[in-house]
Structure formats: structure tokens, C-alpha cells
Design brief:
285 residues; 11 helices; alpha/beta; 36% helix
């Protein structure tokens, strides 16, 4: 681990432990070569948080590349795409055009505002991916924590994407909350507590036949979003005949599964390898 990064780890732990924006982390960790940011702050809507960044593999491809849309976490009330360049470059270096959107947060919106923004971003990607070397008909939705929730809802519930959902070839969730009603934690109460039918807000309610294949990753030591969320979503998907792969990484917690994407921490869990292999497989089928 680089010396500067090692010295910064105590402050970094406080930053990440609070699920705050991880711009500091992103600025410290070395990035993958073979990838570049090709667009920054593109609007997919009219609001200041309806913007996205695009990363792409370096070099010219013979054909449009599959696309990964990655939604970051932050309890639906925090986060910024500016802290996730390490994710965008890591996935782009594996051959994917990678899009990282911002979305509106609590208290500006509550459910379903952030899901609606996610859907708008995916529609933008389907329409414009070709401008950045991507194939808008081969999209994998991915995310961490609250972002995995958004990705899951878009993947399993056709209320949001409608006909555009046919472009979604797979869903990869990292430490995602998929079955957490009734709401007992402050962040979920604030984001979902006013919805009269809590079951309607849960990915596990909508999952079933016809949904895209899923990769559900979790840290075995996650005490913030219990890995059993993934187990219950997997059971619903499998009951509908949907291919699902579930992996738990030993010794990894809620934040560790995200930071393992960064180059200095990949020895802790093969998150990048697993997501890239899954995305490659489902976009080639």
C-alpha cells in the first residue's frame, strides 16, 4: 500500500464508516490504466443532481462495448459521482463503457424519487451509449448499498423502465438492501416511511420470472445491510427460473466490499473480477 494512502487510513476510516462521499478515498488510491473518463457532468434531466459521468476503455474497439451503469450508495441521503472514479476506471479497464449517475437525495426527494432518477439515467444511457462507444442494448445495472437497491428495483420491477428494461442483460448488487420492511432505521424511515404500502418499495416483492440474471455479492461481516437480504432476493428469483449467483466474501464488511474495487485493496475480495466476469457473460448471451 502506498505510504501516503497508509497514513491517510485513520481519517479515511471515519469518512467511509459514516457512508459519506468518498472523494478523499478516490483522490488517494491509484487508478487503473487502460481506461479514461470520456464525459463529465452530462445532463440526463433538468435538476442539478441529474448528471452523470462516463468512463470508457482506452483505444478503439471494433464494435460497441457493453455498458455498466453503477449507482453508488449513501443511505439515499448522501453521495456524489465525483467520489467514484476508481469504480468507473476499474470497470472500464475490464472492457465496459461505465456510467456513474448522480440522483436526487433525501430530503429533496423520498421514494420513489431516486428510483425515477435511476430510470431516467438508464434511458439516457440506452439512447446515447453509442456516442461513447457503448451498446445501449447491452446494459448491466450495478450498485453498492442504496445504489444496489436502485439497480435492483430497475431490474426486477418493470414499472420504472417499461420497454427499456429489455436492454438490461443483468444486475450486479454489492451489499444491497432488497427486503428491509418494516422500516426501523432512520435512513429508511426518512426515505420510505411515508409510503402507504411498504411492500411495494421492496425489490423482493417484485422479483420473479422474466427478470434478468443476477449476481448478489455481500461481505460476510456486513452488519449494516445483512447478507440475508441477498439470500431472500435470490430465492424469489430462482423460484421464477432466473439465474442467480450469490457470493459472500469472508472477512469483508459493508464498506470493504466497495473499497475492494480499488487497486490497493483487491487482494481482500475479487469484487472486480466477479462483476466483470458476470457482466461479460450476460452481455454475450
Amino acid at each position: 500500500m502506498p505510504f501516503a494512502l497508509h497514513r491517510a487510513m485513520p481519517a479515511l476510516g471515519l469518512l467511509l464508516g459514516a457512508c459519506s462521499p468518498i472523494t478523499m478515498f478516490d483522490g488517494l488510491v491509484p487508478k487503473d490504466g487502460g481506461a479514461r473518463q470520456v464525459a463529465k457532468g452530462l445532463p440526463y434531466g433538468e435538476g442539478p443532481r441529474q448528471r452523470l459521468d462516463v468512463y470508457a476503455p482506452a483505444g478503439v474497439a471494433d464494435a460497441p462495448r457493453p455498458v455498466i451503469v453503477f449507482f453508488y450508495g449513501g443511505s439515499w441521503n448522501s453521495g456524489s459521482r465525483g467520489g467514484y472514479g476508481f469504480v468507473g476506471r476499474a470497470l472500464a479497464a475490464r472492457g465496459f463503457v461505465t456510467v456513474i449517475p448522480d440522483y436526487r437525495l433525501v430530503p429533496e426527494v423520498v421514494y420513489p424519487g431516486f428510483v425515477l432518477d435511476g430510470a431516467s439515467a438508464v434511458r439516457w444511457v440506452r439512447a446515447h451509449a453509442k456516442d461513447y462507444g457503448g451498446d445501449g442494448d447491452r446494459i448491466v445495472l450495478a450498485g453498492h448499498s442504496a445504489g444496489a437497491y436502485i439497480a435492483a428495483m430497475l431490474a426486477v420491477d418493470d414499472r420504472w423502465l417499461g420497454d427499456d428494461r429489455k436492454a438490461v442483460r443483468g444486475f450486479a448488487g454489492l451489499a444491497g438492501p432488497y427486503d428491509f420492511a418494516p422500516f426501523t432505521v432512520g435512513a429508511s424511515i426518512q426515505a420510505f416511511g411515508d409510503w402507504r404500502a411498504p411492500a411495494e418499495t421492496q425489490p423482493v416483492t417484485w422479483a420473479g420470472a422474466g427478470d434478468p440474471p443476477a449476481l448478489l455479492l455481500a461481505g460476510a461481516e456486513d452488519r449494516i445491510v445483512r447478507p440475508s437480504n441477498g439470500d431472500r432476493l435470490a430465492a424469489k428469483l430462482r423460484a421464477g427460473g432466473v439465474p442467480v449467483e450469490v457470493k459472500r466474501y469472508p472477512g469483508i464488511g459493508h464498506i470493504g466490499i466497495l473499497t475492494a474495487i480499488a487497486k490497493p485493496f483487491r487482494g481482500k475480495a475479487p469484487v472486480v473480477d466477479d462483476v466483470a466476469a458476470f457482466a461479460e457473460r450476460v452481455t454475450q448471451e
